[in-house]
From TrEMBL, chain A:
The lineage of its organism: Eukaryota, Fungi, Dikarya, Ascomycota, Saccharomycotina. Its EC number is 2.4.2.9. Belongs to the UPRTase family. Keywords: Allosteric enzyme, Glycosyltransferase, GTP-binding, Nucleotide-binding, Transferase. It comes from Australozyma saopauloensis. This is uracil phosphoribosyltransferase. The keyword Oxidoreductase does not apply.
UniProtKB/TrEMBL annotation, chain B:
Pathway: Pyrimidine metabolism; UMP biosynthesis via salvage pathway; UMP from uridine: step 1/1; Pyrimidine metabolism; CTP biosynthesis via salvage pathway; CTP from cytidine: step 1/3. It comes from Australozyma saopauloensis. Belongs to the uridine kinase family. This is Uridine kinase. Keywords: ATP-binding, Kinase, Nucleotide-binding, Transferase. Its EC number is 2.7.1.48. PANTHER family: URIDINE KINASE. Residues 271-451 form the Phosphoribosyltransferase domain. Pfam families: PRK (PF00485), UPRTase (PF14681).
Length: 216, 486
C-alpha cells in the first residue's frame, strides 16, 4: 500500500523490488530498451495508485451462477494531460490501465530571454472541467513547468482537488514549491530524492528522462 | 459454460481400511500417486505374448502416466569378445547372469519412491547401452515386463501384482522364429541353434520356476481373454482404492488444523481498496463483455504479479552510478526468477507476467482433475532445467479444493526446488485449499487476490464476505472466460 508521506503526497511503497527497478533506470550504463521497459513498469504502478484515489460507489453485482457480490463501480470520468515531451512517455502506461482514455497535451518551454517557463501549445478535451485529470511529467525538480500546466488546467475550470500529478521522481524542494501554490493537487510519486543541486538537477536523480526515453 | 464442481468435497464413504491407514500415516505429508505407483510384474517365456498383454492392459486401464518398463533395457553391456559370440548366435542372453539385475532393482526402487528416473535404452545391434535416455516421472502405474521379471526377490517385493504368462513352448518357438527371421534378419539355422542351445534350456531351468512367484498365471497368453479381463478388472479395482485413498488424504489435509490467517507471514492478500473492489466487480459480473474481462483480469494479474515479486528477498545492495557521478544505494536481484504455469488457468497470467519480466523462463504443468472423482492427475510436465537456485512463481488463477496446486508444488519439490523458493500466485483461493496447502508446505509463499472463508467470515481481510460455498469459489470460470472456450 502506498503511504501518504505528507498531505496530498503519495509515495509508492519502497519495496526491494521498486528500489531494484529504480536501480536499473538510474544507472547511466542502462541501455534505452531496458530504460523504457522498466520505466513503463514503474509508470503502471503510478497509474494504478492514481486510479486508487478515484471515487467509487457501492453497487450490487450479479455474478455467474446467480451469485451476488457487493462490489463497487468506478465513478467520474478521467483524462490524461501530458507535458510535452517527457510527459508523453507516460501515456502508454496510462493506456495500459485505461484503454480509451482521452489525453490532452501541453507544451511548455523555457523562454530564452527570461529563463522562465512559457506556454507554447495546449490541446485539451472540451469537457476537461468535468473530469479527473492525471497530469503526467516524469520528473518534479523545481516544479516550474508543472505549476504552469496546473495553472492552465485551473483556468480551464478543473478543480485543483481533481488533479493528480504523477511523476517517477521528485525533489523535496519541488514538492514544497508546488504545494505552496497548489496544496490541493495530489502528488503521486515513485521516489523522493535527496535535494536539487546548483544546476537544479535532482540528486542522485536519473538524468534527462525525455532524452533517455526517446533518444540516447 | 461447463462448470465442474468441486469433486473433492463430494462425500466419499470411508471404509475401515482407510481409517487405519489415516491413523498410522502423518496427515501432514502429501503422498502423490507417483510415490508408490502400482507396479505390475509380467514374466513368461520369450514369445509367450507378454508384450501384447502389457499393451492390452495399458489400453484398458486408460490411466494417465502408465509406463511400460522393459527388462530388455537392462542387459549387461557386452565385451568385444562377447559381442562376437552374440553375432554368431553363441551368446547366452537367456540366463539371469546376462541381466544387470542390480541396475534394474535400483531403477525400480527409484520409481517406487516417486523419483524422476532416467532409463538408458539398450541397443540389440550394438549389444550395448545407448546414449538415448527415456525419462519416467509421475507414473501412476508401471508394468515391468520381461523373461526375468519374476526372478529377483527384491523386484518381487516391490510389485503389487505378479503375473506369469504360461504359453506352450512350441507356440513360443513358432512365434520366435517368425519374429527372428522376418523382423530381425536372422536365418533359420541360427535361430534354431539359439533356441536349442540357450533359450529352451534356460526357460526350463530359470524362467519356468518363477511361475511359483506369480499371483496369477495366464495360460495360452493373449488368446486367454477371460483371464486377461479378470486381471484388468482386478487392477482397476486396486487403482480405484488407491485413488480413493489419495482423495481422502487430500481432504484430510485441511481438517483439524488451526490456522490463523493474520499471523501467517507467508500469506499475502491483495488489499481491499475501492479500486481493487471495482476490478473484482468487473471480473465477477455476468454482464462484463469478454474483451473487458480479459483487460481487467490482465490488470488484476499485473497487481498480483507485482505483489509476488515484492515478496522476493533475494537482493543484494549495489552502488549505482548516476549522472554527474552521483551514487545511488540500489538493490539488485541475485536469483533468477522462473514462472511455472498450471495449464490452463495459470496461462491467464502469462500476458502480465511477460509485461513484468519479458524474458522470464516458463515451465508448464498439465494437471487435470478426474471429472467423476475430483482426483487430480499429472498429465505432463516441462520445466526449465536449472542446476542453480532460482525462485519459482507458480501461477494458477483459481483454487477450489487445492489438490491440483498441491500436486504442482510436489512436482517442483521433486525437481529439487525448495519450499521457500516457491511463490504461488492465485486470484481466487478458498480457505480450505489454503489450509491444505500450508499444512503440507508451510514454507511456501502464497499471493492471493481474494481469499474466502469456510465458516465465519473474517471481515478484516474478507470485507466482501466471500465464503467457500459461494459460486465463484466453487466453479472454475476464469480460464473459460479468458480463453473463450469451456
Amino acid at each position: 500500500m502506498a503511504t501518504e508521506t505528507g498531505k496530498n503526497v503519495i509515495l509508492l511503497p519502497q519495496t526491494n523490488q521498486l528500489i531494484g527497478l529504480y536501480s536499473i533506470i538510474r544507472d547511466q550504463a542502462t541501455k534505452r530498451g531496458d530504460f523504457v521497459f522498466y520505466s513503463d513498469r514503474i509508470i503502471r504502478l503510478l497509474v494504478e495508485e492514481g486510479l486508487n484515489q478515484l471515487p467509487v460507489e457501492e453497487t450490487l453485482i450479479k455474478c455467474h451462477g446467480g451469485h451476488e457480490y457487493k462490489g463497487s463501480r468506478f465513478l467520474g470520468k478521467i483524462c490524461g494531460v501530458s507535458i510535452v515531451r517527457a510527459g508523453e512517455s507516460m501515456e502508454m502506461g496510462l493506456r495500459d490501465c485505461c484503454r480509451s482514455v482521452r489525453i490532452g497535451k501541453i507544451l511548455i518551454q523555457r523562454d530564452e530571454e527570461t529563463a522562465l517557463p512559457k506556454l507554447f501549445y495546449e490541446k485539451l478535451p472540451e469537457d476537461i472541467s468535468e473530469r479527473y485529470v492525471f497530469l503526467l511529467d516524469p520528473m518534479l525538480a523545481t516544479g516550474g513547468s508543472a505549476m504552469m500546466a496546473t495553472e492552465v488546467l485551473i483556468s480551464r475550470g478543473v478543480d485543483a482537488s481533481r488533479i493528480l500529478f504523477l511523476n517517477l521522481l521528485a525533489s523535496p524542494e519541488g514538492i514544497a514549491a508546488f504545494h505552496e501554490k497548489y496544496p490541493e493537487v495530489k502528488i503521486i510519486t515513485g521516489g523522493i530524492d535527496e535535494k536539487l543541486d546548483e544546476d537544479k538537477y535532482i540528486v542522485p536523480g536519473l538524468g534527462d528522462f525525455g532524452d533517455r526515453y526517446y533518444c540516447i | 459454460m461447463k462448470m465442474s464442481s468441486r469433486g473433492l468435497d463430494s462425500t466419499t464413504d470411508s471404509t475401515s481400511q482407510f481409517a487405519t491407514i489415516e491413523k498410522t500415516e502423518p496427515s501432514k505429508r502429501y503422498t502423490p500417486p507417483w510415490t508408490k505407483p502400482y507396479i505390475i510384474g509380467i514374466g513368461g517365456f520369450s514369445g509367450s505374448g507378454k508384450t501384447s498383454i502389457s499393451q492390452k492392459i495399458i489400453l484398458e486401464l486408460n490411466q494417465p502416466w502408465t509406463v511400460l518398463l522393459l527388462c530388455d533395457n537392462f542387459y549387461k553391456a557386452l565385451t568385444e569378445e562377447e559381442r562376437k559370440l552374440a553375432l554368431a548366435s553363441q551368446y547366452d542372453f537367456d540366463c539371469p547372469a546376462a541381466m544387470d539385475l542390480e541396475l534394474l532393482v535400483e531403477k525400480l526402487d527409484s520409481l517406487k519412491r516417486g523419483k524422476k528416473t532416467e532409463i538408458q535404452i539398450y541397443s540389440f545391434s550394438e549389444h550395448n547401452r545407448t546414449e538415448k535416455l527415456f525419462t519416467i516421472y509421475g507414473a501412476n502405474v508401471i508394468i515391468l515386463e520381461g523373461i526375468m521379471a519374476l526372478y529377483d526377490q527384491r523386484l518381487l517385493d516391490m510389485m503389487d501384482i505378479k503375473v506369469f504368462v504360461d504359453t506352450d513352448l512350441d507356440v513360443c518357438l513358432a512365434r520366435r522364429l517368425t519374429r527372428d527371421i522376418l523382423y530381425r534378419g536372422r536365418d533359420l539355422v541360427g535361430a534354431l541353434q539359439q533356441w536349442e542351445r540357450f533359450v529352451k534350456p534356460n526357460a526350463v531351468k530359470h524362467i519356468y520356476p518363477t511361475i511359483r512367484n506369480a499371483d496369477l498365471v495366464i495360460p495360452r497368453g493373449l488368446d486367454n481373454t477371460t483371464a486377461i479381463d479378470l486381471l484388468i478388472q482386478h487392477v482397476k479395482k486396486q487403482l480405484a482404492v488407491k485413488s480413493k485413498l489419495h482423495i481422502q488424504r487430500l481432504e484430510a489435509l485441511g481438517h483439524n488444523f488451526q490456522f490463523n490467517v493474520q499471523s501467517c507471514k507467508n500469506l499475502h492478500i491483495l488489499p481491499s481498496t475501492p479500486h481493487t473492489r471495482g476490478i473484482h466487480s468487473i471480473i465477477l459480473s455476468k454482464k462484463t463483455e469478454r474483451t473487458d474481462f480479459i483487460f481487467y483480469f490482465d490488470r488484476m494479474s499485473n497487481l498480483l504479479i507485482e505483489m509476488a515479486l515484492d515478496t522476493l528477498t533475494n537482493y543484494t545492495s549495489v552502488d549505482i552510478r548516476c549522472i554527474k557521478d552521483y551514487t545511488y544505494k540500489g538493490l539488485k536481484q541475485t536469483l533468477e526468477v522462473i514462472a511455472v504455469s498450471v495449464i490452463r488457468s495459470g496461462d491467464c497470467f502469462m500476458n502480465s507476467m511477460k509485461k513484468s519480466i519479458p524474458d522470464i523462463p516458463i515451465g508448464k504443468l498439465l494437471i487435470q482433475s478426474d471429472a467423476s472423482t475430483g482426483e487430480p492427475h499429472l498429465h505432463t510436465e516441462s520445466l526449465p532445467k536449472r542446476e542453480h537456485l532460482a525462485k519459482y512463481i507458480l501461477l494458477d488463477a483459481q483454487m477450489i479444493g487445492g489438490a491440483g496446486a498441491i500436486m504442482a508444488i510436489q512436482v517442483l519439490i521433486d525437481h529439487k526446488v525448495k519450499q521457500e523458493d516457491i511463490i504461488l500466485v492465485c486470484y481466487l483461493l478458498s480457505e480450505i485449499a489454503m489450509r491444505r496447502l500450508f499444512r503440507v508446505f508451510p514454507e511456501i509463499t502464497v499471493v492471493v487476490g481474494k481469499l474466502s472463508n469456510s465458516e465465519e467470515v473474517d471481515t478484516t481481510y474478507n470485507m466482501e464476505g466471500f465464503k467457500d460455498s459461494d459460486w465463484p469459489f466453487l466453479n472454475r470460470f476464469i480460464d473459460s472466460l479468458y480463453f473463450g472456450t469451456d
